[in-house]
Amino acid sequence: MGRLTGRTALVTGAGRGIGRAIALKLAAEGADLVINDLDEGPAAETLGVLEGLGAGARAVVGDVADPAFADVMTDEAVSTFGGIDIIVNNAGYIWNTTIQNTTDEQWEAMLAVHATAPFRLLRAATPFIREAARREIEAHGRARARKVVNISSVSGLHGAATQIAYAAGKAALFGVTKSLAKEWGRYNVTVNCVAFGHIETRLTQPLEDGPRTIDVNGRALRVGLDADTLERIRTMTALQRPGSPEDAAGAVFLFCIPESDFITGQVVECSGGAAG
Fold first, then answer.
1. What's the pTM value of the predicted model, to 2 decimals?
2. Is 187 designated active site?
3. Which residue of 34, 164, 176, 179 shows the fewest CB atoms closer than 10 Å?
4. Cβ contacts of 48 within 8 Å, gap of 6 or more
């Protein structure tokens, strides 16, 4: 019996990196998973690992920014596993440039994936959350504890040059988190946010170690950091190292277990003590 046995978790962007580590952590603790990724290959790979851990798991491949996506993912969780206990809004990517070179398309894409998509997923989950809480309160006097963890960035907290659109989308999640914590408290749902610093993923890899672009809906977007930038980040970080996806997953896990049942509306940095 794991800490999350009998719980069903939704994790977006779980084909790679942080999202994959989160899904594996929750599964290792007994949760059933509905995962998502934009790309079928990574989603299928993560699904196979989850099933190897003995978890009940389903994959919903698609773009979280698609207006139809949220209903598909929540319906999959309810129809397959009977409910929703944990929602982790993790999916996202970077599309960086200076403000004068930021197009309307770029601005809107960053807001769509980092702010609108989480909003839609939470809105789609509302009918189940509301009705389940009502039934549980009538039967037991209190609703079952449920969890929302929104994934943001220190860029949203402190800003970052060339990330005006990304930072705006990530900052929007702070308002979503704090507002929904007040709205869903009546249903015994905690809503918190983790703002990551430098976590080692394909988006932050050294430029010499991998491809310098990723494909997102047919767009080739530049990723990776040069050696000078990586060293500057390291020296500004109290722990003197980048975080791993497993470090990131651990921070999310803290908001999914019963020990955090009286913590809500909070934004916590997981950055190794990086200076703002």
1. 0.95
2. no
3. 179
4. none
Distance CA 94, CA 6 (A): 35
Residues 6 or more apart whose CB falls under 8 angstroms from that of 76 comprise 34, 58, 60
**14-58, pLDDT tens digit by residue?**
999 999 999 999 999 999 999 999 999 999 999 999 999 999 999
Q: At 207, list the tokens.
A: 């430029």
Residue 99 phi, psi (nearest 5): -60, -40
Which of the four pLDDT bands, split at 50, 70 and 90, describes residue 144? very high
Q: 3-class DSSP state for residue 3?
A: coil
Q: On the CB side of 195, how many CA atoms lie within 13 Å of its CA? A: 23
The rounded distance, in Å, linking the Cα atoms of 230 and 240 is 11
Average predicted confidence (pLDDT) for the chain: 95
Q: Which of 81, 95, 166, 187 is catalytic?
A: 166
| Among 147, 85, 152, CA closest to 115 | 152
For the domain spanning 8-198+244-269, the CATH number is 3.40.50.720
Q: Whose CA is closest to 88, among 251, 260, 274, 273?
A: 251
Q: Tell whether the model's pLDDT for residue 273 goes beyond 70.
A: yes
Phi–psi pair at 151, nearest 5 degrees: -100, 120
